């Protein structure tokens, strides 16, 4: 028997093909909304890398990309409430139309902090595109502009999302078996 990452998953929520399809739909909206606006598309590392790669190939207009690494979670599954900038942008944001690409919005603390920072740096507009939304857990008033899928209040991994640095390379989004993190 082959034991591996897949055996740690309780339930698959969204398959690779469902994610590709939703990226196409969101890409069409983004193409229309950002036509001639030359957006700066910001990928929030590392979780949003896979979704970012899908989304930018579906945006059929001029767009620049950059990366930012912020952290609120450390290695666990519970928010620390602290947001640290681990890697800042290379490109100035003043006057730019910004599209943030995220993997998941949970409490909203990370995104709230990021949006505030970009507005403080005089971005012209800041919009949010997230693969997953966990609205039940929201404590900040963050409302994403483009959402792939909603997820229940469970810890999910895959398609960029990790637990202790692992599972990002699963080609789908699934619920991690609680015994995997309860034993740690
Ligand atoms: P927030 O600040 O919205 O509470 O948390 C945002 C970040 O926490 C996400 O970008 C992600 O890195 C992490 N996170 C929140 N919920 C989950 C989850 O269910 N699974 C994983 N792997 N990460 C999560
Ligand atoms: Mg993230
Ligand atoms: Mg993480």
Report a brief summary of the structure:
The protein is built from four helices and nine strands; from the N terminus they run βαβαβββαββββα. By secondary structure, it is an alpha/beta fold. It has one domain: Rossmann fold.
Q: What does this molecule look like?
A:
The protein is α/β, with parallel strands linked by helices and 184 residues long. It has one domain: Rossmann fold (3-Layer(aba) Sandwich), CATH 3.40.50. Helices cover 23% and strands 29% of the residues. The chain contains four helices and nine strands. Strands 4-3-2-5-6-7 form a six-stranded mixed sheet. The protein has a three-stranded antiparallel sheet with strand order 1-9-8. Strand 5, helix 3 (109-120) and strand 6 (125-133) form a beta-alpha-beta unit. Helix 1 crosses helix 2. The chain is globular, with a radius of gyration of 16 Å. The relative contact order is 0.20. The protein binds guanosine-5'-monophosphate and magnesium ion (MG) (2 copies). Guanosine-5'-monophosphate is lined by residues 47, 72-73, 79, 102-111, 155-157, 161-163.
């Amino acid at each position: 028997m082959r034991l591996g990452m897949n055996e740690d998953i309780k339930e698959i929520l969204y398959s690779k093909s469902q994610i590709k399809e939703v990226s196409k739909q969101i890409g069409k909206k983004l193409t229309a909304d950002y036509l001639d606006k030359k957006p700066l598309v910001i990928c929030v590392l590392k979780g949003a890398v896979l979704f970012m790669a899908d989304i930018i190939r579906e945006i059929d207009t001029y767009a620049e990309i950059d990366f930012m690494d912020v952290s609120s979670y450390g290695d666990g599954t519970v928010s620390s409430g602290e947001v640290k900038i681990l890697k800042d942008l290379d490109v100035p944001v003043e006057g730019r139309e910004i599209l943030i690409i995220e993997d998941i919005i949970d409490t909203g603390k990370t995104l709230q902090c990021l949006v505030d920072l970009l507005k403080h740096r005089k971005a012209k507009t800041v919009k949010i595109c997230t693969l997953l939304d966990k609205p039940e857990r929201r404590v900040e008033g963050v409302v994403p502009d483009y959402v792939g899928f909603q997820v229940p209040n469970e810890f999910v991994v895959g398609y960029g999302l990790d637990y202790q640095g692992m599972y990002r390379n699963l080609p789908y989004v699934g619920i991690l078996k609680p015994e995997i993190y309860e034993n740690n």
